Structures are given as C-alpha cells and as structure tokens.
C-alpha cells in the first residue's frame, strides 16, 4: 500500500490505540478496555458513563500532538469499524462528520436499543464509536473510510 500524505491511519484495539500520519507512528497503550474500565460503573453504559468516557478519550487524544488546522481523512481496516458501519450507517464504506454526529445523537437517544444490539461483542463497538466521534472533533477529521486489507499482496 502506498503512503498517502495527510491521511490519518488508525486502529483501535482493546489494549491500545494506534495512529499513523505523515510517516509518524503513535501508539497509546490504553485501548478500549482502559476507556471502559475508567468510565463505566457497574458495567452500565448510562449517560454518566458516556460523559466520563468522552472525558477519558479527550485526555488520551490530547496526549498526542496532532495538528488541528489541517482537515484530515482517516482510514482503518478495523473489524469494529465495520461493526459500527453496520450498526449506524447501513453498512456504508465511509462516513463524514455530519453523518457521525447525527448517528451519535441517535445513539444517545436510543442508547438501550444499541446496547442490546451489541451483546455479542460486549460494548467494544459502542466504545469504539464514541472514540471515533471524539477523534473527529479533536483532530479535525472530516471523513473516515473503511479500507479492506489485501492479504494477497503481502
């Protein structure tokens, strides 16, 4: 795969968050599990947990030096991103900031419905979704695309 200048590549896992932009690779050893354990009380994803999660995510993102002024397109091949696309975006392959914010508002209004939809993967896909929203806000990401990995070329 060729390196696209100005494109933010990312991957969010249970134990780490990874980012690559302009050839610089950044890895945070706090992932989705860390965000969940530092935000949710009694295993509930309620309004307080979402607010706390946003704060924890903001702290993690602010620890990374990312230029805000430059609008960014982001790409990922994460399976959880695919799950988010199925849950909130009718299985599209890319989303923009307006679509994501609209879906986030729907999520907050119908939180219990979405929690019931992700029982198979615990709450990881919903936490992933919240991280996406905060990344778009804090790093001026205007679009996120799903990038299928091509295993034949490796």
Topology diagram in text:
Layout: E1 7-12, E2 17-21, E3 24-28, H1 32-37, H2 47-62, E4 72-76, H3 79-88, E5 94-96, H4 97-109, H5 111-117, E6 120-123, H6 124-139, E7 141-146
Parallel strand pairs: 1-4, 4-7
Antiparallel strand pairs: 1-2, 2-3, 5-7
Short structural description:
The protein is α/β, with parallel strands linked by helices. It has helices spanning 32-37, 47-62, 79-88, 97-109, 111-117, 124-139; strands at residues 7-12, 17-21, 24-28, 72-76, 94-96, 120-123, 141-146. The chain has a six-stranded mixed β-sheet with strand order 3-2-1-4-7-5.
List keywords for this structure.
6 helices, 22% strand, Nucleotidyltransferase, domain 5, alpha/beta, six-stranded mixed beta sheet, 154 residues
CATH superfamily (homologous) name: Exopolyphosphatase. Domain 2
Write the element-wise H/E pattern from the N-terminal end onward: EEEHHEHEHHEHE
What separation lies between the terminal Cα atoms?
A: 9 Å
Number of helices: 6
Q: What's the multimeric state?
A: single chain
Strand order of the largest sheet: 3-2-1-4-7-5
Helix content: 40-55%
Shape: globular
Count of DSSP E strands? Answer: 7
Can you walk through the features of this model?
The protein is of the alpha/beta class and 154 residues long. It has a single domain, classed as Exopolyphosphatase. Domain 2 (Nucleotidyltransferase, domain 5). Helices cover 44% and strands 22% of the residues. The chain has six helices and seven strands. The protein has helices at 32-37, 47-62, 79-88, 97-109, 111-117, 124-139, and strands at 7-12, 17-21, 24-28, 72-76, 94-96, 120-123, 141-146. A six-stranded mixed sheet has the order 3-2-1-4-7-5. A hairpin with a 2-residue loop joins strand 2 (17-21) and strand 3. Helix 2 (47-62) packs across helix 6, helix 3 crosses helix 6 and helix 4 crosses helix 6. The longest helix has 16 residues, at 47-62. The radius of gyration is 15 Å and the shape is globular. It starts with 6 loop residues before the first strand and ends in an 8-residue tail after the last strand. The model has no long low-confidence stretch (mean pLDDT 90).
């Amino acid at each position: 795969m060729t390196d696209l200048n100005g494109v933010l590549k990312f991957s969010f896992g249970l134990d780490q968050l990874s980012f690559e932009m302009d050839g610089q690779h950044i890895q945070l050893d706090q992932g989705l599990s860390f965000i969940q354990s530092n935000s949710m009380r009694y295993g509930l994803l309620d309004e307080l947990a979402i607010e706390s999660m946003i704060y924890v995510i903001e702290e993690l993102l602010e620890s990374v030096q990312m230029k805000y002024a430059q609008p960014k397109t982001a790409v990922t091949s994460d399976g959880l991103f695919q799950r988010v696309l199925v849950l909130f975006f009718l299985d599209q392959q890319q989303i923009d900031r307006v679509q994501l914010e609209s879906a986030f508002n729907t999520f907050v209004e119908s939180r219990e419905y979405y929690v019931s939809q992700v029982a198979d993967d615990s709450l990881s896909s919903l936490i992933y979704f919240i991280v996406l929203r905060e990344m778009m806000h804090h790093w001026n990401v205007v679009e996120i695309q799903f990038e299928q990995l091509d295993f034949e070329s490796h």
